Fold these 2 entries.
Entry 1:
Amino acid sequence: MNDTTQELSSQESNGEIEDKVHDSIVAIQKKSSLAPRVGIILGSGLGDFTNHITQATSIPYCDIPFFPKLSAAGHAGELILGHFDQIPIVAMRGRSHLYEGHDPLWATYGVRVMKALGIDTLIVSNAAGGLNPRFAVGDVVLIDSHIDMMFRSGLTSNHSGIQVADMGIAQRLGKTYDESLIVATLKAAKESRIAISRGTYLATLGPTYETRAEYRAFRMLGADMVGMSTVPETILAAAMKLRVLAFSVITNVAAPDITTATSHDEVLVGAATAQAKLVTLLGNLFSQWSAPSA
Ligand code: HPA
């Protein structure tokens, strides 16, 4: 019998991955018959969003075969199915990171499971350091492009479960972030009187926060914020033809010329400030979708 806690690796065949995803969704569907339309991945310190999910069924990751277990502080590790503003959703409270030593196939497993549950849209959030000098702690920024300095998308594996030879993928990944969703979110933000910007997210492998020299270099590369997640998930999601919307919440200002180093506590406090904004913003966005004319 399969060990359901064993990590997926790039050695896995497409069929093996599909079988595991199938086992995962069978376990989930035993607990909830909801067919979610939208998947949400909640980053560091943003998990309280799940308090706003109604008729919720919460399933700890450890009760879902093959689902990655978490180790980073500030990540609870549960899947929540329910409704947010009448839209059926599935939320991942906590995610796996590549810096925990995981294979990209494993770190992005939740995206495959949510896709198999039926989502057509994925919303990803993360905590990030603000490189753009206009950003302040607590700001919410829409990711409209990224710089992948992880260099480990997971799609390069022969066994990624994705037909990389399908050139449509390369084209789709050039515009990973769905422009119509960005425009709708900017509109929702305006209506909710929440100031948001859009910008480029640079992903590093971590787990270390940047040196001052790195912050300066990343700014010169054109990045507006820096973090250690999201890109493996959004690349996989776009390759799987999901519509992708991604947010950073600015938890610390990565000013190259101040001498204090970034700490994980600072990141969690910054995320708490932004959490309320995110709930209002998504509430407004979702009510556009659930409105009769949508
Ligand atoms: N750097 C990398 N990851 C982060 C940061 C940062 O400054 N803040 C939150 N996540």
Note: The two ends are 47 Å apart (CA to CA).
Entry 2:
Amino acid sequence: MKISFIGSGYVGLVSGACIADFGHDVLCMDIDKNRIEKLKEYKIPIFEPGLSELLKKNCIEKKISFTSSMKKAVTNSEVIFIAVGTPSDISGEVNLKYIFDAIKNIIPFIQSYKIIVIKSTVPPGTAKKVKQYIKDFKLNENLYDVVSNPEFLREGSAIKDFMIPDRIVIGSNSTEAINLVQDIYEPLFIRDTPVIKTTHETAELIKYSTNAFLATKISFINEIALLCSKLDADVKTISNALGLDGRISPKFLHPGPGFGGSCFPKDVIGLLKIMNEYGLSGNIVDAVLKTNFDQKQYIFNIFYGLLDNDVKNKKISILGLSFKPNTDDIRESPALLIIEKLLSNGADVYGYDPEACQNMKEIFPEVNFTNDLQKVLLNSEGAILLTEWNDLRTLNPRNLKKLMKTKIFMDCRNIYNPFDWTNEGFKFENIGRLT
Ligand code: NAD
């Protein structure tokens, strides 16, 4: 099948590369000409394990190519996936500008039947609005169908998630269009991947409910962890015991510095806005967001307390900048708030990350960011571990105490056994584990 992706970011590139690997003829389009030119030279604008290799392989095999021409993207394809961003605006509402801009730019080039697939995460009711929008342009209704096909990949394991999904969700009022989109995923059905065929609104809401539910688990365990830190209780043992209950999956029960990234924060707030729009309170999702906001403040306060509430002119090391490992994405990363607070209190901040330094530098040009861990820790007066990159999982307190000026360490991912650090003389904190 001939397939185009409008929007060549995390989702467009990963989905495009995987679908090309299935054997389809894929064209990835983006309005960012610079991005497209780089892609043509195999320069991948994002860090995602395995993506570079998969794109290159399929480029060489001529199964995927790149363009900044919308005309080419539309005329060359039978199916057009929309994978543009849907960020929150200042009020938290989902900004659908990029979706409607893309649709507006597609319409003039539709001269034969096309399936327009909304892959971006959009609030329930968006597909209906898109259909009305196209109708207002007086495009012949026989020339298109609209399908909702939300994406569930996670940055850091995006290719695996796309290739081995838990389910495929396809929503539309056209059975033929649903079946055609299902055919694109045919190679996945050898593994009996479940397909959920449903209405647009159900498909759209499945995506929001999934992210909000996972975010709820994180906020819940973060609250339990804070209670543990007040008691003689250990959150790791509690998470383990919860996970062993057949009714509760062990996943997403790890306390941390609060969820971030380009999806959970904006999707949970987006869901709350829709609930409010329909006169519903959305108490649970509201609490999830509040807990997440508070968690980042708590983390800072605990770390600040370890430093005797004084960081002025002290070298402070931030270990991990991306919102999670194996990505360079810093959108809504907990590191943003921690760095901001440390800087406003006069700290001399040094940040380490294997992939995200460049992105962070654009936000805090005055901070020293490097992928040289030794440099970040040398003469440090306090370190806080925010992202569990592999090389941050094997730190040795015996080595760190030789490097650091002051032995203060906070482990926000509960990787380390607290006793190993306190035995080496560290002032050590984590999130709800017995120390
Ligand atoms: P992104 O910001 O990485 O990429 C979006 C791309 O769209 C950009 O390259 C931008 O230049 C391009 N674009 C914007 N307007 C355009 C237009 N009119 N025509 C052509 N290109 C245009 O975004 P992303 O992270 O890939 O997310 C895309 C969507 O997928 C969002 O709705 C997001 O919520 C959803 N999603 C993201 C993830 C994730 O992990 N990143 C996972 C599942 C779903």
Note: The radius of gyration is 23 Å.
